[in-house]
Design goal:
Blueprint (H helix, E strand, L loop, with lengths): L1 E4 L5 E3 L6 E6 L23 H13 L4 E3 L1 H4 L5 H17 L2 E5 L15 H4 L8 H6 L4 E4 L5 E4 L4 H8 L3 H5 L9 H6 L11 H4 L2 H4 L12 H18 L40 E3 L2 H11 L13 E3 L2 E11 L2 E10 L2 E3 L4 E3 L5 E10 L2 E4 L6 E4 L9 E8 L12 H17 L5 H9 L2 H29 L1
Parallel strand pairs: 3-4, 3-5, 5-6
Antiparallel strand pairs: 1-2, 1-4, 6-7, 8-11, 9-10, 10-11, 10-17, 11-14, 12-13, 14-15, 14-16
């Protein structure tokens, strides 16, 4: 890790832990990477370098010998260094003794508590990378354009919470950030922008303690969608929290040209969680006990609520009820205020409503139906009697437009067979049901579907080649 010596303003390769300050700021026009120029006289003439000098001066006043600044300590021209910065930034900000946040669009005589203050409208709050730079450090100090101190994160927590929608406890206790539900943490990313589209996703890695290979495409919608799907799959591998499935297409979120088409079980953009900040996790032991009392089918010993990877999706046992074109499924999460139980933030089932998502069946398994709201079911609702535990296969990826499509009559046949099986199985004898559970019918349909897709593509290529030769 390279740190800038606050006194000499030279870079030093530091291998042991040293106390340091860190700078958070929004890059200005003309500002660029100074890594290769640090230590030269010419660097002091570069646009924005006064931020480096002021940061070093503040660090010395606070008794710190080193600072970390992205324009100096991270070589943007090195792919390896750039990737390391993206993957390690949350840790570096968390380990800093103090974070100086410079707001170049806020006047020194500004009152941040005013409703339309420049502080509330600052561009810094709209950056994607701001999320980790705000949450990771214990101590954050805000400075105006003339380097007048505006206040601290602790003192302005109510104002910052109102601006960002972030829970005040997350601002006051950085160590508690990993204990909020996945849906709540993803909701904090709403409305944020970045120069590169994929950075909207990479800026979220630290909040979940995961890393992704840093790959940039064109930064457009499809590239960002694929990157976000990779992040969600990584989160599922490391965090047991079904609130990651509690998303919906809020007003203003762009949708596909065919809104009724399947979307997989995962969201296509973090904006689908924009208004899900009140979705709280239900701990596994509590949810297991709750389901055992209300949803346990007669031919099941106990409910199995683990969600684990299975082939091209997830195999899950969820409380479901039949509806006209699919299922309603209850997730192990609820909408309501977050309650700190000493270990994590959870839902209070006496005051919350269970999250219910709509699933539709296809040849790839069950997928989320596009919705403009997130349905809930009250814990005292009589409709809960209509739910029972069932094993279902959830698809975790969206349909790929460049693979081809299955003929309508084949998709109808597969969906019909799946529908019959799903309705008949609960009523067959236990020994036949055991055979069904052991034999992976859903995998058979997936394999059959893959075969059909490949044959369809080959036939299509053959027809195109024949026409070309003619």
């Amino acid at each position: 890790m390279y740190l800038l010596n606050a006194e000499t303003q030279h870079l030093e390769d530091v291998h042991e832990q040293r106390p340091y300050a860190i700078l958070s700021h929004a890059w200005q026009n003309g500002e660029r990477d100074y890594c290769q120029q640090i230590g030269t006289k010419s660097v002091r003439l570069e646009p924005g370098y006064e931020k480096v000098e002021m940061c070093c001066r503040l660090a010395q006043q606070d008794g710190l010998d080193y600072v970390w600044i992205d324009t100096c300590c991270a070589d943007a021209n090195s792919t390896g260094a750039h990737s390391e910065t993206r993957m390690s930034a949350y840790t570096w900000f968390r380990n800093a003794q103090v974070c100086y946040t410079y707001l170049n669009d806020v006047d020194g005589d500004e009152d941040p508590n005013e409703r339309r203050s420049q502080f509330r409208e600052s561009r810094w709050f709209k950056r994607s990378w701001t999320l980790q730079e705000l949450l990771a450090p214990k101590h954050v100090v805000f400075f105006a354009k003339d380097w007048t101190m505006i206040g601290t994160k602790a003192g302005l927590s109510s104002v910052i919470s109102a601006i960002t929608g972030i829970h005040k406890d997350a601002l006051a206790y950085p160590e508690r950030v990993p204990h909020f539900s996945v849906a709540t943490r993803l909701s904090w990313a709403k409305g944020r922008t970045s120069t590169k589209g994929e950075d909207k996703v990479y800026a979220l890695m630290g909040l979940f303690g995961v890393n992704l290979p840093i790959v940039y495409d064109d930064g457009q919608k499809e590239a960002v969608r694929k990157t976000f799907l990779r992040l969600q799959n990584k989160i599922i591998e490391t965090i047991d929290d079904q609130s990651i499935f509690a998303w919906y297409l809020a007003t203003g979120v762009p949708v596909s040209s065919e809104p009724s088409s399947p979307a997989g079980i995962l969201a296509g953009t973090h904006d689908c969680f924009a208004t899900c900040g009140d979705v709280q996790k239900i701990p596994y032991d509590l949810w297991s006990e709750y389901c055992a009392e209300r949803f346990r089918p007669k031919n099941s010993v106990q409910p199995q609520l683990d969600v684990g990877p299975s082939g091209k999706g997830l195999q899950a046992t969820l409380p479901v009820r039949q509806r006209e074109r699919g299922l309603d499924a209850l997730l192990a999460c609820a909408r309501g205020p977050a309650v700190w139980n000493g270990i994590e933030y959870v839902a209070d089932l006496s005051k919350a409503s269970l999250v219910c998502v709509r699933l539709q069946q296809s040849y790839r398994g069950y997928e989320r139906a596009y919705e403009s709201c997130l349905d809930t079911v009250s814990t005292n609702d009589n409709d809960l009697q209509k739910f029972s535990l069932h094993d279902i296969h959830l698809c975790t990826s969206q349909s790929s437009p460049d693979v081809g499509s299955v003929p309508a009559y084949l998709e109808w046949l597969v969906n019909g067979l799946l529908y019959i099986i799903s309705h008949v199985i609960p009523y067959v004898p236990n020994w036949l049901r055991l055979f069904y559970d052991l034999f992976p019918f859903h995998q058979l349909w997936l394999v059959t579907n893959t075969f059909i897709l490949n044959v369809t593509m080959l036939l299509g290529m053959g027809r195109r080649k024949t026409r070309k030769n003619q």
